[in-house]
Amino acid sequence: MGNFIANEGLSIFVILVWLGINAYLFVEFYMRFLVERWFYTRVLLGHALPWARAPAACLNFNCLLILLPVCRNLLSFLRGSIQCCSRTAARQLDRNITFHKLVAYMIAFHTAVHIVAHLFNFEYFMDAQLNRNGSLLTFVLSEIGNGDNASFLNPIRSNETNPTIVMFTTIAGLTGVAITLALILIITSSMEVIRRSYFEVFWYTHHLFVIFFIGLVFHGFGRIVRGQTNDSLKTNKPDLCADNFEDWGKAGSNCSVPVFAGNPPMTWKYVVAPMFLYLCERLVRFYRSHQKVVITKVVMHPSKTLELQMKRKGFHMEVGQYVFIQCPSVSRLEWHPFTLTSAPEEDYFSAHIRIVGDWTQALYEACGGDRNEPQEAWKLPKMAIDGPFGTASEDVFRYEVVMLVGAGIGVTPFASILKSVWYKRIQNNQEVFTKKIYFYWLCPETQAFEWFADLLQSLEGQMAEREVTDFLSYNIYLTRWKDTEAAHFRVHHEAENDPITGLKQKTLYGKPNWDNEFTNIASKHPGTKVGVFLCGPPQLGKSLEKQCLSHSEDDVKFIFNKENF
Amino acid sequence: MGQIEWAMWANEQALAAGLILLTGGVVGVAGQFRGWQFAAYAVAAGAFVCLLEYPRSKRAKGTSVARTGQYCFTVCVKAFGPLTRNYYVRAFLHAAICVPGGFMLATVLGCVCLGIASLIYLAAAIRGEHWEPILPKKETRKPVAQSIKNPPQNPPPRPPAELRRKQAKDLEAAAYDNPMPVTLDE
């Protein structure tokens, strides 16, 4: 239980505070519309009025929040600053996309409540105009302001219209429709199925948020929600005057005709700062994209993986960070994230890119991957890099004992870590805080081993040379194989080098028994905090998280860190 | 954007539109708005669109992720054959369904969303996509090979005794070419 708090405590706290603020705003703004000033408005609308205004306030708050988690340069800067104070707080910033999604769901929810309430509002306003009976307070209220067109209460000014037409002829209505449509399109194209398969659709449609924010700011400019002015409240007190509405303004009555005005627009006050921050974020990305990046080497690996080695002036990275790569000749608008596979100690930085979609395929062709002869350096395409951005992998060296788990291509951040470990420990012989690394690589097919085998082979050789054999313990698991391959493995079971990787450490088959692994590690390292780092599918993350929670007892604590893009 | 199957996005959009149309219709009927007949229609139309769109199509390339419990819906939708398979039909159907929604404020949003879904389906149809049901794969038992019925009459050929003795120590040298051709029974 204690480890659950250590792992999840801060997240839960943040979510509770956020929900609390939402609830508070909802109730507070609901109550604000139950006061005297809105008495006559409520005569027309009933409780539909506060039901529309309360989610509007929550929407203001959430639209303020939604832009903040996606300012990744700002977050990276914050993360670096907080890192020195609290590792937990810094890890919280890694969950920015999760928070962005939660806020988006809340916006969708509040939008729904707001729209339903306004449907009732429009209907009631229309009713008031259609029941043209002078002995009805609703009609009398609707007739106010017919002369000057400024002091009216009912925004529907005649009975020869219908709510749909009114919606399309008011600023609030038009902007409302536009931003709701934008929101719906953004949400449907952000569904996991679409996002994972066709990133381009998701990314381009998501830019409808520009329309969303512009519409949002102008949504209140029509001042369509109207309450009694303060001056009017002095001459027409609703609790006294509401009943004798037929005598308003007549000689002998102490009630004059009430005067109404709309609230000034408030939304811009909430969203202008985040919009400015996001604009700065895009400018930073734009500036960084224009810094010259040179491709020094292109390597085509057998498992449809392209390795790009690049240099940029003033580029400085930490282990396991990622960058966004743009190739203008492939697409001017797309930036795609890739983990850096080089170590900070090397004089270049590299990324291994799997060829799975449109953009990667086009990049592969632009770098001459489909041609056999080596390319001239000047023929290679111009690249732009945004980053590097920090992720949980930076924390690896802060733990004394570390478990690294990578599934398939998810091993890339760990490639960077292992290389850095090799440089630090073996070449420079620096003292590192990390004393033991357990590395697990789960792979469904043998081909994917090829480019990583090099690194492991050289590590293995170096470690054997210097007789530093117990620092790094690695396990490679082949999780799927064909029958024909199985026969080959069985026959070569006794060979000195592994038939797949060529390493001395044998490949294991099937999935690891995590229970055993965790128990072993717990028994070998009592009294330490063990960092568990995963880059892989969510199901594996869930099972590892469970193992971390169940094996953290007494003195050994397993802290789970997950990478995600 | 060459690889996209537009139908996948159209499906999400249409499902969302169906839900919005349904909700708008429910509000219109429950609040007894003017024109509640359109709202009642929207409830039925929204429910119909949701039922039609709930089962995801099988993707032409890549793995398809089925929605929870979509199997019964898949069977129903499949029963209509070419009417549901063809996306031109769906595009025009959605365009037709959405029109009455435009006559009442509560259902206007559903109408516009469904209209957009209809346009995306049209794009999908023009690109030649069609709806394929996701059905669980049937287990095919491998046919039993003929040779299993006739066990071998003779023991397998073995190298002479002195070669056999060395096997335990030196695997590579003990390997030999089998004089009889060996094939895999598939």
From TrEMBL, chain A:
First-listed, main subcellular location of the protein, grouped into a coarse class: membrane
One Pfam family, short name: FAD_binding_8
Signal sequence region: none
Database matches in PROSITE patterns: FAD_FR
CDD domains in UniProt: NOX_Duox_like_FAD_NADP
Span of domain FAD-binding FR-type: 282-395
SUPFAM superfamilies in UniProt: Ferredoxin reductase-like, C-terminal NADP-linked domain, Riboflavin synthase domain-like
GO biological process: defense response; monoatomic ion transmembrane transport; superoxide anion generation
Gene Ontology cellular component terms for the protein in this record: monoatomic ion channel complex; NADPH oxidase complex
InterPro entries the record matches: Cyt_b245_heavy_chain, FAD-bd_8, FAD-bd_FR_type, Fe3_Rdtase_TM_dom, Fe_red_NAD-bd_6, FNR_nucleotide-bd, RBOH/FRE, Riboflavin_synthase-like_b-brl
Compartment(s): Cell membrane
Cofactor list: FAD
Reactions this protein catalyses: NADPH + 2 O2 = 2 superoxide + NADP(+) + H(+)
Membrane topology, from the record: Multi-pass membrane protein
PANTHER family: CYTOCHROME B-245 HEAVY CHAIN, NADPH OXIDASE
Record's protein name: NADPH oxidase 2
Organism name: Stegastes partitus
TrEMBL record, chain B:
Pfam family, one: Cytochrom_B558a
Compositionally biased intervals (Basic and acidic residues): 161-172
Superkingdom of the source species: Eukaryota
Spans through the membrane: 38-54, 91-124
Gene from which this protein is expressed: LOC103372224
Family according to the record: Belongs to the p22phox family.
GO cellular component: NADPH oxidase complex
Name used for this protein in its record: Cytochrome b-245 light chain
Taxonomic classification: Eukaryota, Metazoa, Chordata, Craniata, Vertebrata
Keyword Signal attributed: no
